[in-house]
Design a protein that fits this description.
174 residues; Aldehyde Oxidoreductase, domain 3; five-stranded antiparallel β-sheet; 3 helices; elongated
Length: 174
């Protein structure tokens, strides 16, 4: 299986050009890759909690879906070990809509015989990413006051999985 390209190749936010049409000739993006984020709401979704912690991006960029899933898993694991499933509600606040494309050029011996160069260079879909604005919340955690320290630790661990600098904002709900 081919390796993922480094994040630097997709960091800049570009105009989302994902033209899909029911007519094959007019549709440039032939396939839509599957989102790797398994769940967007975790924990106790019915209970109203008194505090909300937000993991907020400090810059404008794109974040791949596997980085978001990794952050979600890390935060959820820390919370579930300390609090159990009933004492928190973790919510993913972004969805990866933007389709990442790659124009793979042939390299090596004999590549010039079947290479097209930059002709038809639109690229094949390789993955999806979420386009993030500055100060946009990525993950929200709803929790009680006595568990604030554990919530901060969990979001701090998730912060290290995301490829941008992030901050944690604490709000009192209701």
């Amino acid at each position: 299986m081919a390796r993922l390209r480094t994040f630097v190749a997709y960091r800049k936010v570009k105009r989302p050009y994902t033209r899909k049409s029911k007519y094959r000739k007019k549709s440039f993006v032939k396939a839509n890759p599957v989102c790797k984020i398994v769940k967007f709401d975790i924990g106790n979704t019915q209970k109203k909690f008194s505090y909300q912690l937000d993991l907020v991006s400090k810059s404008r960029l794109q974040i791949r879906d596997n980085a978001l899933e990794s952050a979600r898993l890390t935060a959820n694991r820390a919370l579930e070990k300390q609090l159990g499933k009933a004492n928190y509600h973790l919510k993913m606040r972004v969805y990866p809509h933007h389709i990442l494309r790659e124009h793979a050029l042939a390299s090596g011996a004999g590549a010039d015989r079947f290479s097209t160069g930059m002709a038809r260079s639109f690229g094949k879909p390789t993955g999806i990413a979420a386009q993030i604005k500055e100060k946009q919340p990525l993950i929200s955690l709803f929790i009680e006051e006595e568990h604030l320290k554990i919530g901060r630790i969990a979001l701090n661990r998730a912060k290290h999985k995301v490829p941008c600098s992030c901050g944690i904002i604490v709000k009192k709900t209701g």
